[in-house]
Amino acid sequence: QYTMPTCNFIYFFLLTFFLLPFYLIVYFSLVIFLKLLLCFHLIYLRNRCVFRCITVFITQEVMKRWNEGHFNVYLSDQIPVDRAVPDTRPETCAQNLVHNDLPTTTVIFCFVDEVWSTLLRSVHSVLNRSPPHLLKEIILVDDASTKDYLKEQLDEYMSQFPRVRIIRLKERQGLIRARLAGAAVAKGEVLTFLDSHIECNVGWLEPLLERVYLDRKKVPCPVIEVISDKDMRGIFKWPLVFGWSPVPEDVIKKNNMKVTDPIRCPVMAGGLFSIDKKYFFELGAYDPGLDVWGGENMEISFKIWMCGGEIEIIPCSRVGHIFRGQNPYKFPKDRQKTVERNLARVAEVWLDEYKDLFYGHGYQHLLDRKVIDIGNLTEQIELRKKLKCKSFKWYLDNVFPDMDTPVVKAEGLVCG
Ligand SMILES: [Mn+2]
User: Fold this and answer.
1) Range in 122-131, 166-175, 234-243, 351-360 the model is least confident about
2) Most confident of 39-43, 138-142, 327-331
3) Which residue has the higher pLDDT, 412 or 11?
4) Looking at the domain assignment, is residue 413 inside a domain?
5) Which Gene3D superfamilies does this chain map to (predicted)?
6) How much distance in Å is there from the Cα of 45 to the middle of ligand 1?
7) Could you tell me the residue range of the domain that residue 53 belongs to?
8) Which of 206, 291, 352, 411 is least crowded, fewest Cβ atoms below 10 Å from its Cβ?
9) Looking at the 3D structure of the chain, how many domains does it have?
10) Residue 38 falls within a domain, yes or no?
């Protein structure tokens, strides 16, 4: 029969001693298992390839730093700010000629807590790949960042480039008002708005300015690389959700479109575009009643088209852009509410009878003005009258004829 050992301590000691390696193996395999789990989670989240996962596996650093910008900040810091990028333009772009008296441009970057290396690469790519005589200046609008490196360190770094100016907003204003602040002091004839996590490709600027030169009411956008290959254009779906869609086949055939031809674009993505400065202000810039971010691309797109302008994507102008899984910026107020409120303003001013379609697609609660105050619209409605802008029906018929827009008279939710 089994009897309890007299000296528990020795047994305990021996057991622990011999089992220690076993414990360690269990411990490390657990750690490895957890890392793998994280890896697959990342793959699931980011939908990236397995190699990226292995990198993550090897360098925990990546994980640690991901949240600084919601992308691979670790990798970004390894890449030189002046790196060469492959010329991704359609082949014939290099032979295109532009006028030699193109207007000058001010490039405006707005940022909040942008990653150091990414911001620098954005600025360097503009400095390196824009003809000096066309680049009046670069304005960096710091929308009240909290990161220390974006203060004196940034001032000092940028002081070596006389063309770069930094404007600092005392309070967080959001993208829309930050851009207006930059535009207000710009000296170039054309405003070029860019995100602060981009890389301009060779010859990116000239084709944009050429379009404005040909017609000051043209608002050209570069191809945003990664998301939209050639022949994609920006569109919207109800309730004013931005998306990408190919140019319809019959339009390509009818106009005999080449890969280098500008693409008429019902809605711009909003991040990257050039616009004649005077024209921008003639259009009333952005509706100053819009908050922070969201809906401003719809507003300016409808305004441009309906009030006599045009939005185009220029296949020969290419700018790379880092797409992030989520927007890393904090909204001063509730994000959802801010965007909804902005969109309601846009709908009220620009959509005419079609605003019912907007509200009908899940935004009925916005009709209750007691719940959501969308602010005063008098100025915006006056502006639309003053500019003699066309109707939203005209826009749909002429700019976006392939959009399905049944005007519903019946009350209730629209399905599908
Ligand atoms: Mn962006």
Assistant:
1) 234-243
2) 138-142
3) 11
4) no
5) Spore Coat Polysaccharide Biosynthesis Protein SpsA, Chain A
6) 18
7) 25-68
8) 411
9) 1
10) yes
- Domain for residue 302, yes or no? no
Token code pair at residue 226 = 């990664």
From ligand 1's centre to the CA of 68, what distance in Å? 15
So what's the pLDDT on residue 5?
56
pLDDT value of residue 40: 78
Q: Is residue 357 one of the residues assigned to a domain?
A: no
CA distances from 335 to 174, 296, 342 (A): 11, 14, 11
In angstroms, rounded to a whole number, what is the distance separating the alpha carbons of residues 394 and 182?
A: 33
Residue 26 CA to ligand 1 centre (angstroms): 44
Provide the residue count of the chain. Answer: 416
- 239: cis peptide before it, omega within 30°? yes
